[in-house]
């Protein structure tokens, strides 16, 4: 990437435009030794997800899944999930694929994505929306009192 000028933040999902290549893997620390992540293809201002998996995974599992989905194409990974498990991501993906301390997404970047959806006539029925938690809850049944 030498020689490419760095553009201001505001590319897909808040990643600085310098980091936006053909495929990106944003990763969020999910706690409990896991990360949330999904591989995206960048198509103009609109990222297109590759695959439908939205669950939290061990960093090694996410790296393997992303490599399979990328089918040999180069991609970059960044986010606080990468920062937390930096050595794992570097070992699995190689140092050239890992970006450290990527900030975002900003509220402005999220707003731009929402505005693009509205311009395409897309909308969500807020009365039927349910959250996606990414993993089963840790709730257990109360133990009987002796």
How does this model look, in words?
The protein has four helices and five strands. By secondary structure, it is of the alpha+beta class. The protein has one domain: Nucleotidyltransferase, domain 5, CATH 3.30.420. Strands 1, 2, 3, 4 and 5 form a five-stranded mixed sheet that branches. The termini are far apart. The N terminus is likely disordered.
CATH topology description: Nucleotidyltransferase, domain 5
Order of helices and strands: EEEEHEHHH
Can you count the helices?
A: 4
The share of residues in helices is: 25-40%
Q: Decide which structural class fits the backbone.
A: alpha+beta
Low-confidence stretches: 1-21
Cα-to-Cα separation, first versus last residue: 65 Å
Mean pLDDT: 79
CATH class label: Alpha Beta
Summarize the helices and strands and which ones pair or pack:
Elements (H helix, E strand, L loop, with lengths): L22 E9 L2 E4 L2 E4 L2 E4 L9 H12 L5 E3 L1 H5 L1 H8 L13 H13 L27
Parallel strand pairs: 1-5
Antiparallel strand pairs: 1-2, 1-3, 3-4
Helix pairs in contact: 1-3
């Amino acid at each position: 990437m030498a020689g490419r000028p760095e553009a201001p933040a505001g590319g897909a999902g808040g990643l600085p435009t310098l980091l936006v290549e053909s495929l990106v893997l944003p990763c969020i620390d999910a706690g409990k030794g896991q990360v949330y992540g999904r591989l995206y293809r960048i198509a103009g201002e609109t990222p297109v997800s590759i695959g439908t998996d939205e669950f939290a995974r061990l960093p090694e599992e996410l790296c393997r899944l992303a490599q399979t989905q990328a089918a040999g194409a180069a991609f970059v990974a960044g986010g606080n999930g990468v920062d937390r498990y930096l050595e794992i991501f570097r070992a699995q993906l190689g140092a050239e694929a890992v970006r450290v301390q990527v900030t975002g997404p900003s509220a402005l970047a999220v707003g731009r994505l929402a505005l693009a959806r509205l311009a395409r006539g897309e909308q969500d029925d807020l009365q039927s929306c349910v959250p996606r938690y990414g993993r089963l809850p840790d709730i257990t049944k109360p133990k009987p009192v002796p």
